[in-house]
Specification:
6-stranded antiparallel sheet; Heat Shock Protein 90; alpha+beta; Beta-Lactamase; 19 helices; elongated
């Protein structure tokens, strides 16, 4: 039954597609479920609701697999106007904390239960259902209404009012197939962007498009190409590396075979009137043409586009036309109202567009503040009064504030190239227009901000998962860069600082165009790194842009033969492209972990581009997570290096060459990152003609067992070289182990002394203290034990041990192993001593190395699961004399 107070399942819409998956009750299933939902909805073309669906799925699957501890079933259902996601677990006894008809979801800071809070906040509908075997939480997200294929017509205008084109208007025509590859590229496209048709045919349009995409905001290029009709601005990268701003109109078509494709018409952005959908003018009672209508009425009366950027762009264009200006601009205020950010402009250089920031209070007096209307008849008389117009050729300007409930939300301005064009009358008209449009702009801005925050939440959730999934320093650096490019920036560089006495080091560089990575790395390596300032937040770094400009200037002089060096053509294009790629705004964010600056994250934009404030705030959140992940990776690497160094010291540095004896050792320690465990081996010279060998197993695994390993191996060498025999060596080692007290461990040990003989044989004296018995393989293929069992070490104080003498003949093999070999298991089966003997009987005539390898292969093939115990194999063979 459905939970009271929550809307129950509604299936009024016809389900057109479904996708389902089940996830095991393990932590990694949460990330897998998020990826499943994201891929499914994007495949259905539901990009508008992907971020909300991912956040809700993440919380609900976490409740199922982490808190309820059961598997989770996720079902995605598609209808024409919504998407529904159902998450079910196998723990119906654990009720959702809802009582009566009201919600009682607890604190948002609680460890679980936040999924329902998010459902209530984000979903259009949601509910909970129980059955005897499962509990299900579902949510539905309605799709935004987006009209496509709309038709409109513009009025008939006098010739004098038609848009002016400086040269023949070129309309680039390109057609994109269903995979996104270019299949048509006309002559105007070649002239506009510099690429010949054979250079672009078959390549994805995304390789050339500079799409102004922000996480969680707007439509990506892949989605735009799938829409029936799309119109707007973006950029195309030319052959010189610069981005050509274009205005585009996309139309989705299909051929006679039903194959869909997209036709794209592109013109220069300042010629957008060629393609831009005309706005309807109000119809006047007098029947006069639309030009006779009040421009202010045209400005206010036309319908606003769906997205904020489109609304702002049309606003500045209408404001420019209304006051017959040469340029217009609209800026939005930051949250603290201390700066204004350029969001739309027309008639200004590209450097004055998109996210450049100027202070609200530019100077003293009412003319220096964006909070009051201002008219400047001649900017040359008051330089710097309007910083946005510096060096643009504009002489007169009128600016008015956009205010909502008395709060400054933006600024709208119109400028002209001649002086004295505007008076207080134009200021009043523009202010009245600004007052009428301010609320719509603020409403659209808040909607964009909300979408950005939702997208940012999804972005940070996935980024945290990725960063937490590795402790490798190089992989962490790569993840940091790949998460920022191209989502947050065009290029990224990561500087790291080893310690407080070290200078920052350029550790990783990434550009969205892989061909420019090497040039960018070379440029950054020639300039001083940014200062490691611990102050939080992004700060502007001008060194890369300045260095790029100097490099481009030197290259241009060499090309023209103006410098001292002869003209050089090689690498000129690469240098200019690199200069354009880093010529925009560059910011540095400190990477601070555990109150120490461990590096800097540098983000950059191409020429004339700026970062918006929301992106910088998102980058700051990411940098904090990345810094901690990077420091964790550093600490893990340092401790791993120390651990491995100490572990390697517990094993012999190398095996001595014994005349007339082949020796091979294979050692495997159990546990990730362990090089030494409780098993150990050694082979060392005692005196001339005599060698000691040992193989042992300390009770347990890990560092505690490894500590006893080091004690045993070094004690054996010292005692043997003092002239003690095998039993005396082991009795003294037994006493040393018992002296360790609580740190002592049981120890099984096979110790022997080897004397090679002139006739090719070898005499061995062996003591086997609780260890698996050594096996002797004769030339005829028979296998027998080479010693008798005796008590293990570390248990009793008084031991009575004895040694046994064995003579190996040429061709014989002595095999010594630890119990990690004989106790290899697969279910209830165990390899055992008999299984090892069977393997050894097949090794007749093999070298010592081949014998050890065959035993290892047999152990590995005995079971599918990785070995859970340490393992050591020592094989010694006396080679047969060569026949003459």
């Amino acid at each position: 039954m459905a939970e009271p107070g929550v809307e129950t399942r509604t299936r009024s819409s016809v389900i057109t597609a479904r996708a389902a998956a089940s996830f095991d009750p393990v932590g990694r299933s949460v990330a897998t479920a998020r990826a499943f939902v994201r891929d499914t909805l994007q495949g259905w073309g539901y990009s508008d609701v992907v971020d909300d669906a991912v956040v809700l799925t993440s919380e609900l699957v976490t409740n199922a697999v982490v808190h309820a501890g059961t598997s989770a079933d996720v079902l995605c259902l598609r209808t024409e106007d919504s998407v529904r996601v159902e998450v079910a677990d196998r723990y119906p006894e654990r009720e959702i904390p809802i009582q009566g008809t009201g919600l009682s979801l607890g604190s948002p800071d609680r460890e679980n239960g936040r999924g329902l809070l998010l459902c209530a906040a984000l979903a259009s509908r949601w509910g909970v259902e129980y059955t005897p075997t499962y509990k299900q939480v579902w949510f539905q997200l309605d799709l935004p209404q987006r009209p496509v294929g709309a038709r409109s017509a513009g009025p008939v205008l006098p010739v004098a009012l038609l848009p002016v084109a400086d040269e023949r208007v070129r309309v680039a025509v390109t057609q994109i197939d269903r995979t996104g590859a270019i299949v048509v590229w006309n002559e105007d496209a070649e002239r506009l962007f510099g690429y010949a048709a054979d250079q672009v045919m078959g390549k994805p349009l995304t390789d050339f498009a500079a799409w102004p995409h922000t996480p969680g905001i707007g439509t990506g290029i892949a989605e735009a190409l799938q829409l029936s009709r799309w119109e707007g601005s973006y950029g195309i990268r030319g052959t010189d590396g610069r981005v050509v701003p274009v205005y585009a109109s996309h139309l989705r078509v299909r051929d006679t075979n039903g194959e869909p494709s997209t036709v794209c018409l592109l013109v220069r952005d300042d010629e957008r009137a060629v393609l831009q959908t005309p706005q309807r003018a109000p119809v006047t009672d007098s029947g006069a043409d639309s030009h006779a209508a009040d421009p202010f009425e045209v400005f206010i009366g036309s319908p606003a586009p769906d997205d904020l950027d489109g609304l702002l762009q049309r606003t500045v264009e209408r404001a420019r036309d209304m006051l017959d200006g040469d340029a217009a601009f609209l800026l939005l205020a930051t949250d603290d109202e201390t700066e204004l950010e350029v969001r739309a402009s027309t008639g200004l250089p590209s450097a004055r567009q998109r996210f450049a920031r100027v202070p609200v209070e530019a100077g003293t007096g009412r003319y220096g503040s964006a909070r009051m209307p201002a008219v400047h008849e001649d900017l040359t008389a008051v330089p710097g009064a309007v910083p946005l117009l510096n060096a643009t050729g504009m002489r007169s300007v009128v600016t008015v504030p956009l205010k909502v409930e008395g709060r400054l939300t933006g600024s709208l301005g119109v400028a002209a190239e001649s002086a004295g064009r505007y008076s207080n009358e134009e200021a009043l008209r523009l202010q009245f227009a600004a007052d009428r449009i301010a609320l719509a702009v603020e409403s659209a801005r808040l909607g964009e901000l909300e979408r950005l925050r939702r997208g940012s939440l999804s972005f940070l959730v996935e980024a945290s998962d990725l960063l937490a999934g590795t402790l490798d320093r190089d992989q962490t650096l790569a993840l940091m860069a790949q998460m920022t490019v191209p989502t947050l920036a065009t290029w990224c560089a990561v500087y790291t600082i080893a310690d407080q006495a070290s200078d920052p080091y350029l550790s990783y560089v990434l550009h969205e165009d892989e061909e420019r990575i090497d040039g960018l790395k070379a440029l950054l390596s020639k300039i001083d790194p940014p200062d490691p300032v611990p102050t939080p937040g992004a700060r502007v770094w001008t060194a890369p842009a300045n260095a790029a400009q100097r490099a481009a200037l030197r290259t241009s002089k060499r090309e023209l033969g103006l410098g001292s060096s002869p003209p050089v053509s090689s690498g000129i294009g690469t240098t200019l492209a690199t200069a354009a790629a880093v010529g925009g705004e560059t910011v540095v964010l400190p990477l601070v972990a555990r109150n120490r600056v461990i590096g800097m994250l540098t983000l950059g934009k191409p020429t004339d581009d700026h970062f918006r404030q929301e992106i910088l705030e998102l980058a700051e959140d990411l940098s904090r997570r990345a810094a901690l992940a990077l420091d964790n990776a550093r600490l893990y690497s340092e401790r791993m290096a120390i651990s491995q160094s100490l572990q390697r010291s517990l094993l012999p540095p190398g095996l001595p060459q014994i005349p007339g004896v082949e020796v091979e050792v294979i050692y495997r320690a159990a546990g990730e990152g362990n090089e030494v465990g409780g098993d150990f081996y050694d082979l060392f010279p005692i005196r001339d003609g005599a060698y000691g060998f040992a193989i042992g197993d300390v009770c347990g695994t890990g560092p505690e067992a490894a500590a006893v390993t080091g004690l045993a191996r070094h004690a054996l060498r010292l005692l043997a070289r003092e002239g003690f025999g095998g039993p005396a060596v082991l009795e003294r080692l037994n006493a040393a182990i018992l002296d360790e007290g609580a740190r002592s461990r049981f120890l099984t040990l096979l110790y022997g002394e080897l004397w090679p003989q002139e006739d090719g044989s070898a005499v061995l004296k062996i003591v086997c203290a609780g260890h698996p018995l050594p096996l002797r393989l004769r030339q005829d293929g028979s296998v027998e034990t080479a010693a008798e069992p005796q008590p293990l070490l570390g248990v009793m104080e008084d031991l009575e041990l004895y040694e046994q003498v064995v003579t190996l003949n040429p061709g014989d093999v002595l095999l010594c192993v630890t119990d990690g070999v004989t106790e290899r298991r697969e279910g209830t089966r165990m390899l055992g001593d008999d299984g090892l003997i069977d393997v050894l009987t097949t090794c007749t005539g093999l070298t010592a190395g081949a014998v050890a390898t065959r035993v290892l292969r047999a152990v590995e093939r005995f079971a599918a699961e990785p070995a859970s115990d340490d393992m050591a194999i020592l094989a010694m063979r006396l080679p047969e004399p060569h026949k003459v």
